[in-house]
Amino acid sequence: MSTEFRLKTGLADMLKGGAIMDVTNAEQARIAEDAGAVSVMALERVPADIRRDGGVARMSSPEKIREIIESVSIPVMAKVRIGHFVEAQILQEMGVDFVDESEVLTPADEENHIDKHAFEVPFVCGCRNLGEALRRIGEGAALIRTKGEAGSGNIVEAVRHLRQIGNELRRLTILTDDELMSASKELRAPYEIVRMVARDGRLPVPNFAAGGVATPADAALCMQLGAESVFVGSGIFKSTDPEQRAKAIVKAVTHYRDPAMLVEVSMGLGEPMRGLDIATMPEEELLQTRGN
Amino acid sequence: MGAIPEATTAGPRPGSVPSPAPLRIGVLALQGSFALHAAVLRRLGIEAVEVRRAAALEGLDGLIIPGGESSTMLKFLVEENLFDPLVAFHRDGGALYGTCAGAILLARTVENPAQESLGVLDIEIQRNGYGRQLESHLGTCPCPALGEPDLPLVMIRGPVISDTGPRVEVLAEWRGQPAFVREGKVLATTFHPELTDDTRIHAYFLELAGEAREATAGKTGGTISR
């Protein structure tokens, strides 16, 4: 790994053990920061609204991003459409700290992701399995997150993706060196990265969870399944008491192995966002299948 | 000044080479790069304790406050009743080392924006002193106290120390500002040695923690833990 790349993964390292919250304006960003979020993610609509309203979901407007950057002292992330490298150029120019090339927005390129090596700003990308994670890392992602199913309020897909990645990682570590090229072919992932991962037994970049986190228990579940931090999208601002819920999720991520604390933080939060049953959702409504 | 904590050789144990059951060091594990600090300590033969509650400070000789988001960690210190126990830990002679966000929490005064801090290290510090992530950078700087080679610097949205009190020793500078400072048993760096392979600053911290243990052992009549 190049030393310059260490600057990108280094920021991800500093965000470990924290909650990163989707926000659409300065007011929400301040609520997130006051609750103890380690970072905020700027986007034009939270995933639940994108799902409800339909249409093309794009990068947030520069005015909104500027307003959010100016309102908080924590790092600001923002989403771009898959393959939309000009949206990424705009965000980098504005001084955004991390770019999320996200399936939550409408893809701009159905074949290619952004060449993330070409940027100084670090990128995070979603994945459902190890091959997808390693392809994104090959393209230069400095942070990986599960896709889960954004805007669903249902943790089942994030759990599936965390388990899938963990399982595939463990399997790689027991292969012999002469089996790794074949593994690389099956994973459709760069051989050199497959070799590195097989040797180390872990991804070369941090691995966070996202997609469907609605309760402190959901956040702690992701952490216990091996996520190093948690992104919370619609789960905060689609609940009845965003301030309290945001605080509770921050605390649940830190105390994820402490059931007594989880009891304490899970009380008095009002109603969580209403969830969707993914098993009965039509395939074309799934966001996680975008980009591969 | 060697990589082996000298103080551990002065204890009552026979043999007097680095002890296999040496210092008790904690890493504040509320958020941030705590696991990376624990990994450096492991390379130096120390199994660190993850500290999430005040009770875990009991019996520690030293505590590392990692890099991360200082505003997030500060919320936990205030709301979960860790603030006063940390000040007491320092007052009772425990050694402290803060990296980046950790340095911000230890400082006397924090600016850009102003926020509360433990005030156990007489420095004034500017959050995000170099700017946003695009200004994060690498470098090397000389550190006479630790000898050759120069220290590798990884600055991630790093703070800048803008003022130091009379008892603060500047051990290394970067771009004309203090980047590695010491006051008694408190160390701070504005950069992240836990992101490099260089373990010298952690070894230096273990020396301070060893001295802390010796001093408190003397006070309480020879027992090792406080």
How would you portray this structure in words?
The complex is a heterodimer of chains A (292) and B (226). By secondary structure, chain A is of the alpha/beta class. Chain A is built from 13 helices and eight strands. An eight-stranded parallel sheet of chain A has the order 7-6-5-4-3-2-1-8. In chain A, helix 2 (26-35) packs parallel to helix 4 (62-71), helix 2 (26-35) packs across helix 12 (242-254) and helix 7 (156-173) crosses helix 9 (191-200). The longest helix of chain A is centred in the middle third of the chain and has 18 residues, at 156-173. The radius of gyration of chain A is 18 Å and the shape is globular. The relative contact order of chain A is 0.15. The model of chain A has no long low-confidence stretch (mean pLDDT 95). Residues 1-15 and 221-226 of chain B have low confidence and may be disordered. Chain B is built from five helices and twelve strands. A seven-stranded mixed sheet of chain B has the order 2-1-3-4-12-11-10. Helix content of chain B is 24%, strand content 26%. With 226 residues, chain B is of the alpha/beta class. The A-B interface holds A 3-4, 6-7, 10-11, 13-18, 33, 35-39, 73-75, 92, 95, 97-98, 120-122, 250-251, 253-255, 258 and B 29-36, 52, 67-69, 71-72, 75-76, 100-101, 112-113, 127-128, 131-134, 136-138, 154, 156-157, 192, 195.
Give a quick rundown of the structure:
The complex is a heterodimer of chains A (292) and B (226). Chain A is built from 13 helices and 8 strands.
Key features?
heterodimer; A: 292 residues; alpha/beta; eight-stranded parallel beta sheet; 8 strands; 43% helix; B: 226 residues; seven-stranded mixed beta sheet; three-stranded mixed beta sheet; 26% strand; disordered N terminus; disordered C terminus
Average pLDDT figure of chain A: 95
Please give the oligomerization state of what you see: heterodimer
What order do the helices and strands of chain B follow? Answer: EHEEHHEHEEEEEEEEH
Number of helices of chain B: 5
Largest sheet of chain B, if any?
7 strands, mixed
Structural class of chain B: alpha/beta
Looking across the biggest beta sheet of chain A, what order are the strands in? 7-6-5-4-3-2-1-8
Strand content of chain B: 25-35%
Spatial strand arrangement across the major sheet of chain B: 2-1-3-4-12-11-10
- Broad structural category of chain A: alpha/beta
The backbone outline of chain A, from C-alpha atoms, is globular
Unreliable stretches covering 5 or more consecutive residues of chain B: 1-15, 221-226
Topology order of chain A in helix (H) and strand (E) letters: HEHEHHEHEEHEHHHEHEHHH
Amino-to-carboxy terminus distance of chain B: 26 Å
- Give the number of DSSP strands of chain A: 8
Name the helicity range of chain B: 10-25%
Largest interface: A-B, 34 and 34 residues
For the termini of chain A, the CA-CA separation is 24 Å
